[in-house]
Amino acid sequence: MTAMRIGIIAGEASGDILGADLIRAIKHRYPDAQFEGVGGSLMIEQGCRSLCEMDRLSVMGFVEPLKRLPELLRLRRLLKLHFMSWQPDIVIGIDSPDFNLNIERFLRERGIKTLHYVSPSVWAWRQGRIKNIAKSVDHMLTLFPFEEHFYQEHGVPVTCVGHPLADQISLDDQRAEARAELDVEDGHPVLAILPGSRGGEVAQLIAPFIETAQWLRRAQPNIEFLIPAANIERKQQILQAVAALSKDLPVRVVLGQSRTVMAAADVVLMASGTTSLEALLLQRPMVVAYRFGKWSYKIFSRLIKTPFFSLPNLLAQRALVPELLQDEVCAEVIGPLLLEQLNNANHRETLIEEFQIIHRQLARGASERAADVVLQCVGAPNA
Q1: pTM of this prediction?
Q2: Torsions phi, psi of 117, nearest 5?
Q3: Does domain 5-162+364-377 have CATH number 3.40.50.2000?
Q4: Taking Cα atoms as reference points, which of 145, 118, 142 lies closest to residue 361?
Q5: Can you tell which superkingdom this protein's organism belongs to (predicted)?
Q6: Distance (Å, whole) CA 29 – CA 261
Q7: Strand pairing of 158-160 and 190-194?
Q8: Residue 328 per-residue DSSP state
């Protein structure tokens, strides 16, 4: 029997994690399955042949991708041609909707099954995109229950698989183990600072985050700061910013280990993104912030249809954690919010209870459920 062929495209680190787990789950049942497309180191380790470096797809905002448009269009053409030649049983786009949905629609119109893993924020802004999504995908896999309801209302085949992080992270508190691993002393409050994984995110957020750390140290002199860096380039970028902004701040920059850093912390200050879900699952109070480029924000602010942008608040459907945008992202606003998160024990206990409820709702065996849907879509035996 011919080996199953699966095209798979991930554009950033979170997609690489999801893709690697999905490949692993499928190969557990079909060891000879072949995977080609675009992936990072984790997907490559699981046997995916990547046709280009995943970082070439990692862009942010509305205006910024325009600078890379010729290259992105070339990559999209290359992938369309490759999949038409290779003729996979299915092509899976993981997140990166502006890049992937165009490829999915092209292939679906030519008879190749398509599946999209991780819903675009179509429920939040540009809801008219649902018409294009319906024409582009045979099935949508969502991570969160509220997304599934939106697609059902619009007649798009959908399955909520939950989130793999909820399956991986224990409900038990991991602070002691994390502090031992990072050699963090007991008795000192710790703030984890996560300014994002992309260079553009770090450039927007690192200065106000360091200024907030300075503000917080004046209010709580024994506090320490941990900053995980996504890679060597981000570590150098962060170290340069710290050196330029504060020479005496007790900051330790750690390569990788963002989950361990958050588990070791008492409170987290972070860029909006999947890491806010990790902080929720680790039961850490947090402040979530984001800054766009000037023109990207002008566009974003007119299109948004939801009162929240951080995952904890979207999942709770109310203001569970503080979230800040643009000019609100400054030490004078963030500092007092972090201090309240640090020192209000009753608030912390209530927040942890809310986080645990959401954790249980999301722990559904995501990768196995996603593999089930993929195999059903291709009509695999015993799917």
Answers
A1: 0.77
A2: -115, 115
A3: yes
A4: 145
A5: Bacteria
A6: 35
A7: unpaired
A8: G
Task: Indicate the class that CATH gives domain 175-362.
Answer: alpha beta
Measured between alpha carbons, how far is 180 from 344 in angstroms, rounded to an integer? 25
Are the C-beta atoms of 12 and 96 separated by less than 8 Å?
yes
Distance CA 355, CA 281 (A): 7
**Residue pair 226/192 in contact by the 8 Å Cβ criterion:** yes
Give the tens place of pLDDT for each residue, 324-379. Answer: 988 899 999 999 999 999 999 999 999 999 999 999 999 999 999 999 999 999 99
In the chain, what percentage of residues exceed pLDDT 90?
67
The ranges assigned to domains in the chain are 5-162+364-377, 175-362
User: Is the confidence at residue 167, as pLDDT, over 60?
Assistant: yes
Q: Which amino acid is at 23?
A: I
The answer to whether 112 and 83 have CB atoms below 8 angstroms apart is yes
Domains 5-162+364-377 and 175-362 belong to one CATH topology: yes
Structure tokens at 131: 């018409």
